Amino acid sequence: MPTNPPRPYILLVDDEPNNLFLLEELLAGEGYRTYAAKSGIEALAAVECELPDIILLDVMMPGMNGFEVCRHLRENDEYNAIPVIFLTALDDEESRLTGIEMMSDDYLTKPIRSELLLLKVRNILKLQKMRQQSFQKKLQKQIDTAWNVSESLTEKFRLFVPDQFLQRIAPDGLDSIQVGNAREEELTILFCDIREFTTIAENQDPKQTFAWLNGFFEHMNEAIDRHHGFIDKFLGDAIMAVFDRTDHHGEDAIFAALMMEENLQLLNDTYQDALITKPIRMGVGIHTGLAVIGTVGASSRMDSTVIGDVVNTASRLEELTKTYGCNIIVSGQTRAHLTSELPVQWHLLDQLKPRGKQQIIDLYEVTATAKKSLSHNWQAVETLSVL
Predict the structure, then answer these.
(1) CATH domain 9-129 topology
(2) CATH class of 176-386
(3) What is the pLDDT of residues 225-234, one digit of tens each?
(4) Among residues 314, 340, 323, which one has the least CA distance to residue 239?
C-alpha cells in the first residue's frame, strides 16, 4: 500500500486547554502532527521523547514560563536548533525584547491570526528543508576535504563507511563522528547467507575460499548497489544490506534479491570446477520496519551499524529459507509497504511467530515471473513506480 511522507511534528505548549484544542484543530487540518503540553516541564519532557520540527510556545504559564523553557532549549546542544514561535498575550516591548534574546524564530501576540500562523509555520519548515539541503552539500564538501588527505585516500575511506552512513553519523563533518550519533527511520533490511559454507570451505585451501568468496560478495554488491541499497556488514559468508530510499525501499530490496539470484548463477558458471565442486546456494530474508542507524562502541573504537527488531527479524527470515526450502522469504510488512505491482510471484508459505517474537508475520516466497534475465527490465519498472 502507498505510504505518505512523514508529517511535520509540532509541539504545542499552553496552560489553557481551549487554546491547545484550537491549535490542534487548525494544524491537523493542514496535515501536521501535534502533541499538546500543558506546562513547561511537560514540554521539555516531550522534547526528550521526540524532537519536534517546530514548538509553538506560550509565555505566561505557572511553574516554568515560556521564556524559561526556551532558555533550557537554547542551552542544550541537542535541542538548541529547534525553531520556537512564541504565542502570547504579552504585547509590551520588554517582553518582545526578551523573546528576541531567547533567539526565538518569531513572536506573535494573541489573538492569533490563523492565516499568519500557518504561513509562519510553512515558511519555517520550508527554510529548514533548504538548510538541510545546503547542509548536505556542505557535508559532502567536508567529507571530501576532511583531514587534508588525498582524494584517493578519501575514496578508500568511503569503502569502509558508505556515504549513506556518513550523512547520518557525521552531521558536522568527519570530526563530529562520535559514539551515540544515531537516527531512527523506516528501512528495509536484507540478509543473505551462503548455504553449507563450512562444508565447502573445509575441503578447500583457504586461498581458494577467499577467491570465490570475494567474487560472491562482488556479484551481490553489484545487485544491491544497483537498486539503491548499501551493505552494512560482511558477516563471514553472510551479508546485511540496508535499503532506505523513501517510499521505495521495499521494492528496491526485492529487485536486488532477484538480481542477486541471477548474479549467483553467473558466479557458479564462472567458478564451477575451477574453485567449487558444486553450485553455491544462498538464502535471502527481507523485512521492513523501524531501525536506528548510528555509531556504537567505545570512544577509542567504534563502528557504524543498524539496530532494531527489523534487523533481527530479517535475519530470522533468512534462516527460515532452510526450513521452507526456498531462496527468498519476504515478510508481509515489506509487501504491505510496496507502492507498485512487481513482476514477481508471491507464494504464502506460512503465518508464524519467529523465534523470540510476539507478532505473527506472513511469510512469502518470492520468485521472478520469468526465467530469463529480468535485471535489465527491473530498472524500467522501478522508474515507472516513482512517476
Answers:
(1) Rossmann fold (3.40.50)
(2) alpha beta
(3) 899 898 888 8
(4) 314
